[in-house]
Design a protein that fits this description.
Elements (H helix, E strand, L loop, with lengths): L4 E4 L3 H15 L5 E3 L3 E5 L11 E4 L2 H10 L6 E4 L2 H9 L4 E3 L4 H11 L6 E6 L6 H7 L4 E11 L4 H9 L2 E5 L2 H10 L8 E5 L2 H4 L9 E3 L5 H14 L5
Parallel strand pairs: 1-2, 1-9, 4-5, 4-7, 5-6, 7-8, 9-10, 10-11
Antiparallel strand pairs: 3-8
Amino acid sequence: MTHPTLLMIRPEPQSRAFTAAFTAQTDRAVPVIYSPVIGITPRNDVDLPDDATLLLFTSVNSVTVWSKHTTDRSPSTLCVGENTAEAARAQGFKTQSADGTGEDLLALVLAQATREDRIYYLSGNHAALDLAQALQANGLNARRIVLYDQSPVTLSKVALTALNEEPVVVPIFSPRTARYLAEQISDVPLFKCRFLCISENAAAPLKGLPAPTEIASYPTRASMISALDMTLRNFTAKD
């Protein structure tokens, strides 16, 4: 059995948090290469509302950037998943997790929010689902605030060498990181690579690449950890 390497392509803080959680839950030590393919640049010119009653977070990045702009923790918050919810709690927010996708968060908001709420969807410049528009279409008072810009980052030479020569598992957590990765490795053989995606949407940009793709049972960190543990158990050099 050849032990594969994990290639983590999310922003490094989230990548390290995931690998730490994976190691803690599985007691498995795995070599890791950190090579983000997406860069996060916070915006300075953020229009801070003074009437917010409900904030929506869909990433740890949005929690981190928002928390640097204001010390107000009075609004209620709803988060897309438990990882984001943990980050919000660590910043002093009272929050609840939809424990799923953007669509799950939308359903949670529609179930709880009222027409009196002033809802703010805090996001990057790219969003797979504009929650503010979806909520407006349902008669709610919602607005999107863009907190940061997302841009592609070039894979490191170490990462490219691993993809060319070594058994590698690449966890994929969003369609955009998948897209940025696919654009850089279209001519890489990927003989010993395997992708592990959090959802079908995250896997879509990888179609056509010569490497097998697996999908986690549920779009959660816990499910990704379980799927990764199983993938590593079954992985051999010939895969």
